[in-house]
Design goal:
Protein name: Outer membrane protein assembly factor BamA
Radius of gyration: 37 Å
Strand content: 35-45%
Subcellular location: Membrane
Domain POTRA: 26-97, 276-355, 358-430
InterPro entries: Bac_surfAg_D15 (IPR000184), BamA/TamA_POTRA (IPR010827), D15-like (IPR039910), OM_assembly_BamA (IPR023707), POTRA (IPR034746)
Keywords: Cell outer membrane, Membrane, Repeat, Signal, Transmembrane, Transmembrane beta strand
CATH topology of the largest domain: Porin
Strand order of the largest sheet: 18-19-20-21-22-23-24-25-26-27-28-29-30-31-32-33
Largest sheet: 16 strands, antiparallel
Number of strands: 33
CATH class of the largest domain: Mainly Beta
CATH architecture of the largest domain: Beta Barrel
Shape: globular
């Protein structure tokens, strides 16, 4: 019908227009668009080939009408040709199709409208409905109807039928209503595997898309879906292939009705065949790495081992990653498998295309308001005109996160020309200043007033400083700290601290005044070293008669001059709320008279923490948790003129940063009165599982094991606890709140303890 209309228009124009004769050669003076409301003139004119100043051609007009119809925006198009002053005037009269502005569902009882819109792609990633402005198209509506039926079939409602109606809300707008006749619910109550000998039925069920009803797994519905059954056959084959059974034959699933909406699905393994083993492993096209080097990337792929297609893919990915570490990000490794049925072996040939090394053209930084570009660029391990590689990219993201100044860091490479890459860095800054006034109470300090002022990323330079004051009847604390990053324009930080702390304890009074300094420097990639010095004056007075001997021994004025050195490596993706990576640090401290003090002792502390995102496990379901493990070992000893480790430098096991659920020092040695006396040996293990509620809030469950001793490590005397807690990321780091319960409660001890603190836990 549309073609007939176009031919009539062309014929009409050709016969009636006095300007249609070839010998007239009339020019187009003007092109006008009439009748459009939503489609702009510029869009329509773009698709019209007849332009002012060109020779008028009826054939072009006919072609333009066809082109405009193909756009899908118009129900009717006609052309009027009239004489102008300098040529002909073409007037295109268009009638637009109505725009579908909304989709409505009726009859959907088992699947909500919001869920249907999500399945149809009508909802964005934030869960908001997309603005719909789709020209009326029956093909579009038919596709949606088929998708709705597929959604119901996938959810276990076979036989669902979908119809639609179109209701115009105005001459240019319409709403499409989908009427759904839901099919009968079909659930899988039993799955039976037959003919399997090499692989356990449970392992096969684990990979199936189709699942059984199970109270144990909180699976109250198990939809029967034809699409899932087809996919299951392929998944069973993939499982057998991964175990080396390349000749496996799987029959079509059999569905048997048991009762009402309950069905049994039977999967039959017709033939398992014999397991294949790896034959030759060959690499072709590799020049940067030898075949021996590439084979070492994955030890499970070796001649004679059971063939596994998944392992082949893993080795291929590791090869690509290996090239990416050197900047060859365009490298590909395509595995070719050649099967030898007579010997049940499979040769694997990796065809490698190394490509060119990638270089950084420009680094573009956006999103920073308070932070200077230079402050961000110096944390990047990528440089303009330098080599681009995946390892440097990951390290750059990690370093920016670990400054603590950004809520989000998005670093995206973009290939611009040849082997050139632009690196687009977009940051979202967090608040880094905090002023607080408050009050606190404890059994030791009684009522205390607190004032603190802290600022990170001072003037956008990355420096930070803090000033805090606590005052009460029994305490007076003054702390001043400053951290100067990239001191002397090197990847190093100068930290300075000054403090004065006065505390009246139950049995004595302590006054400590000191100055500390530390220079830490990144020496290679993620490794850091530090060297510091502390000088402190500690005065113990007003000792009561019933004070422990360890307190009485400390009476008087003592000076401590101490040097500190450390080496660390931090591969955590975010040191405040990590999701993956590990952390390692060894710290040594030496105090002696030649360093300006009165005490001679040394301490060695080793720490290791590992974080793992459980979603990276090869499971078919989501595990949105972060697991972590932390171990800490400490060793200290006095020497020279000091016979006993000073009280303030002992290990006190128990509390919010060691073994939670215990009071400070309660999990270590205690005197006759039950007061902590500290130790010169400590060993602590912490296990956590965390769930991120938001980007700044994490809920955790933990188990802690640890102890402190004198001159030995007694693994049989380690204390144990478990509990729950939360982490809230604030401008100056996470706030910790934990509740721990003792798992080996002893007489006279409380059953649980609350813990509150600020800063990273481990």
């Amino acid at each position: 019908m549309r073609r007939l209309f176009v031919l009539i228009v062309v014929l009409f124009v050709s016969l009636l227009s006095p300007f249609s004769r070839a010998e007239d050669k009339q020019l187009v003076e003007k092109v006008e668009i009439i009748g459009n409301e939503t489609v702009p003139d510029s869009t329509i004119l773009f698709y019209i080939s007849e332009k002012p100043g060109e020779v008028y051609s009826p054939k072009k007009v006919a072609k333009d009408i066809k082109t405009l119809f193909k756009l899908g925006y118009f129900e009717n198009i006609s052309v009027d040709v009239k004489e102008g002053k300098k040529g002909v005037i073409l007037r295109y009269f268009v009638k637009e199709k109505p725009i579908i502005t909304d989709i409505v569902f009726k009859g959907n009882k088992n699947i909500s409208a919001s869920k249907l819109k999500e399945e149809l792609g009508l909802v964005d990633e934030n869960g908001e409905e997309k603005e719909l402005r789709e020209p009326l198209s029956y093909k579009f509506l038919d596709d949606l109807a088929r998708k709705i039926e597929a959604v119901y079939e996938k959810k276990g409602f076979p036989g669902t039928r979908v119809f639609y109606t179109i209701d115009r809300t105005s001459p240019t707008k319409a709403v499409a209503t989908f009427v759904i006749e839901e099919g009968h619910k079909a659930n899988v109550c039993t799955i039976e595997i037959r003919g399997n000998k090499a692989i356990d039925s449970g392992d096969i069920k684990d990979v199936l898309e189709t699942k059984e009803k199970s109270l144990l797994h909180l699976r109250f519905t198990a939809p029967l879906s034809a699409a899932n059954l087809e996919e299951d056959v392929e998944k069973i084959k993939e499982l057998y292939h991964s175990r080396g059974y390349l000749d496996v034959e799987v029959g079509e699933p059999e569905v048997v009705k048991e009762k009402d909406d309950c069905y049994k699905v039977i999967y039959t393994i017709k033939s398992e065949g014999e397991p294949y083993r790896f034959g030759k492993i060959v690499f072709k096209g590799n020049t940067l790495f030898s075949s021996k080097e590439l084979l070492k990337l994955f030890k499970k792929v070796r001649p004679g081992k059971t063939f596994n297609q998944e392992l082949v893919e893993k080795l291929s990915n590791r090869i690509v990653k290996k090239y990416g570490e050197l900047g060859f990000i365009f490298a590909v490794a395509v595995p070719e498998v050649k099967i030898h049925p007579e010997s049940h072996t499979a040769d694997v040939i990796f065809h490698i295309h190394e490509g060119e090394r990638a270089y950084v053209r420009f680094i573009n930084i956006t999103g920073n308001v308070a932070t200077r570009d230079r402050t961000i660029r110096r944390e990047l391990d990528l440089y303009e005109t330098g080599v681009f590689n995946t390892v440097r990219l990951e390290r750059s993201v990690r370093r920016l996160f670990n400054t603590g100044y950004f809520e989000n860091v998005d670093v995206k490479p973009k290939i611009v020309e040849g082997n050139k890459v632009d690196v687009n860095v977009n940051v979202e800054e967090r608040l880094t200043g905090m002023f607080s006034v408050g009050a606190g109470y404890s059994s030791v300090s009684k009522l205390v007033a607190m004032v603190s002022l802290s600022k990170g990323n001072l003037f956008g330079t990355g420096d930070s400083g803090s000033l805090s004051l606590q005052a009460g009847a029994r305490v007076f604390y003054f702390d001043l700290n400053y951290n100067h990053r990239w001191w002397l324009d090197k990847p190093q930080t100068l930290s300075l601290g000054l403090y004065n702390r006065y505390t009246e304890y139950f049995t004595y009074t302590s006054k400590r005044t000191g100055f500390s300094s530390m220079v830490s420097r990144r020496i290679w990639e993620d490794w850091k070293i530090g060297l510091g010095y502390l000088i402190e004056r500690d005065k113990i007075t007003d000792i009561s008669d019933d004070a422990p001997d360890i307190i009485k021994d400390e009476e008087g004025v003592t000076k401590v001059g101490m040097a500190t050195a450390f080496v660390s490596r931090d591969l955590r993706d975010n040191r405040f709320l990590p999701h993956k990576g590990d952390y390692f640090r060894i710290t040594t401290q030496l105090a002696s008279d030649f360093l300006g003090g009165d005490e001679d002792f040394y301490k060695v502390i080793g720490e290791y923490a590992y974080y793992f995102n459980l979603n990276e496990l090869p499971t078919s379901f989501e595990l949105p948790f972060v697991a972590s493990f932390h171990a800490k070992v400490g060793y200290a000893s006095a020497f020279g003129g000091t016979t006993r480790l000073p009280i303030d430098y002992r290990f006190y096991v128990g509390g919010d940063t060691t073994v939670r659920g215990f009071q400070w020092g309660e999990a270590g040695p205690q005197d006759e009165e039950g007061d902590p006396e500290g130790a010169n040996r400590e060993l602590i293990f912490n296990f956590e599982v965390g769930y991120d509620v938001t980007k700044i809030l994490r809920l955790i469950a933990f188990v802690d094991v640890g102890g402190g001793w004198w001159d030995k490590y007694d693994l049989g005397d380690m204390r144990k606890s478990a509990g729950i807690g939360l982490r809230v990321l604030t401008p100056m780091g996470p706030i910790r709140l934990d509740l721990g319960w003792k798992l080996d409660k002893r007489a006279g001890e409380s059953s649980s303890e609350w813990h509150f603190g600020m800063g990273s836990y481990f």
